[in-house]
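Dear Dr. H.,

I hope your travels went smoothly. While you were away I took the liberty of generating a structure for the chain from your last submission, since the lab meeting agenda had it listed for discussion. I wanted you to have the full record in hand beforehand rather than looking at slides cold. The sequence, exactly as received, is reproduced here:
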Amino acid sequence: GALVLMAAYFLIWGRHMNRKFSAASTAAGKEGPMSINLAVWEGPRPASDADALKAFESLYARYIDTDFKAAPSERISAYAAALLARYPDLTELDDNCIDDSPWSDGPLIGNAGGPFIYFGFVPSGVEKGAWTFAVEMAREHGLVCFDPQSDAMAY
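The corresponding predicted structure, in token form, is as follows:
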């Protein structure tokens, strides 16, 4: 019960701090993160970034950081399909084309559970506009979009 919840909280908090440190290192010209992550979910838009962070941590613990993964919801599946219509899944590319993918892993839908998807981009994918496209598609699908690197909603 409470011990598992506390362990999950510290695991997620530690991941956030590691990403923040990596992002700060990049800004300082040092080695940066290998991927940049985005969280997208169904539900009402949180009233604040702090509320969005709480929702993210709860959804991550429930749907991603679990041994019992739920199948992606229809809306999350449709969202992932829209992303893949523009940027092919990493698993569908030949070895010599993998660097053309904005995704840090694949299959993309493998990063989804229930009403939640948490996925990564390689830095060059962000530069190529995949991040912006993913945020726009989330908005078009009526989904909440959260940037865990800055602990803020993405618009």
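Two observations you may find useful: The mean pLDDT is 83. The helical segments are 2-27, 49-64, 74-86, 123-127, 130-140.

With kind regards,
E. W.
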